[in-house]
Design a protein that fits this description.
Layout lengths: L2 H12 L13 H4 L7 E6 L4 E5 L5 E2 L4 H13 L20 H5 L10 H14 L3 H13 L8 H10 L1 H12 L7 H12 L2 E2 L1 H12 L5 E3 L2 E3 L1 H14 L5 H7 L4 E3 L4 E6 L3 E6 L10 H14 L5
Antiparallel strand pairs: 1-2, 1-9, 3-4, 5-6, 7-8, 8-9
Helix pairs in contact: 1-13, 3-5, 3-11, 5-8, 5-9, 6-10, 7-9
Length: 304
């Protein structure tokens, strides 16, 4: 498969969508990003790497960080994790409060904000140095020691994070989180502020695509079966209330973030990351979804 040529063709085909949507502005620091950027990179499990445009520009990974948090929480707690957070698609927006209230403080899944705030609480309780340990894991799976938090983005989100504060308060009220709300939110915003490029993200997610290989990075250990289950959760919950549409259009497990990044995996074949800051109304990258739809259509490679 000539992935390089396919990526180049895809880029030409999606140019008409270049001005559709707008970047996230509820985090003021993200509103400063030039919205007219696009990058894409594929890593195959055989070592082939293909990339186009701004594949090396770092951006805010935001909710994509929740996949790394899930790997760490599963490694720490195993199946006990599911006592605190569910594994069903939410069908609601990533920051919705309604379902959390109705379901008495148990988040539907680890990828909505409520679920990721619970995972942040678990990591705070179990890690000696949560911020350092989280970064060490991300650096280990990416093979890059320069990956870092962006404190300005984390602070900007913390100063405007009223909805996440409401979610954390509801979780605390129901006894789902143990640590104090300020510390949990601080860690959550830091984790979301990590910056990576498409090349780094697709390299990192190879560990989920290649689930038969031993998973052991910076003390985080998962069985092949646990990685398989993470991929299932990416498939069903990775795109919030657009998970059905993403499965229909693309047909790969993946995860998006409001920084405009999307990572998807084709198990035992490749991992692909795409980035473009303009988002649709569900908070997912317009050009990113188009590019991935074309990728699986052109290659006829998807899990369906
Ligand atoms: O908590 C938030 O709202 C952001 N830090 C992350 C949201 C996000 O990336 C949703 N994904 N599409």
């Amino acid at each position: 498969m000539d992935y390089q040529q396919i990526l180049e063709n895809i880029y030409q085909s999606i140019l008409p969508y270049a001005k559709e949507g707008k970047q996230a502005d509820y985090i003021p620091e993200l509103a400063k990003v030039n919205p007219d950027q696009f990058g894409m990179c594929i890593h195959t499990i055989y070592g082939e790497i293909c990339s186009i445009e701004q594949a090396d520009t770092r951006f805010s990974i935001q909710s994509i960080s929740k996949v790394f948090a899930l790997a760490m929480c599963l490694s720490i707690k195993g199946d006990d994790l599911w006592k605190k957070v569910g594994k069903e698609p939410s069908g609601t927006a990533f920051n919705s409060l309604i379902q959390l209230e109705v379901e008495k403080g148990v988040p539907r899944n680890p990828f909505i904000n409520a679920g990721a705030i619970v995972m942040s609480d678990i990591l705070l309780s179990h890690l000696d140095n949560p911020e350092e340990d989280f970064l060490a894991f991300v650096r280990a799976v990416s093979g890059d020691d320069t990956i870092d938090y962006n404190e300005a983005v984390a602070t900007s989100e913390r100063e405007n994070g009223y909805l996440n504060a409401a979610i954390a308060n509801l979780l605390k009220y129901h006894g789902t989180i143990d640590n104090d709300i300020e510390s949990v939110l601080h860690f959550y915003f830091m984790m979301c502020s990590v910056e990576m490029s498409c090349r780094e993200l697709s390299r990192a997610f190879l560990v989920f695509a290649n689930h038969r290989r031993k998973f052991s990075y910076a003390g985080v250990e998962l069985t092949a079966s646990q990685v398989k289950r993470m991929n299932a959760i990416m498939q069903t919950c990775g795109f919030y209330d657009e998970a059905g549409e993403f499965a229909y259009l693309v047909g790969l497990p993946g995860k998006s973030g409001v920084g405009g990044g999307i990572v998807a995996i084709y198990p035992l074949q490749y991992s692909v990351a795409v980035w473009s800051p303009r988002l649709n109304s569900k908070g997912n990258s317009v050009m990113g979804i188009k590019a991935l739809e074309l990728l699986t259509t052109e290659t006829k490679e998807s899990i369906f």
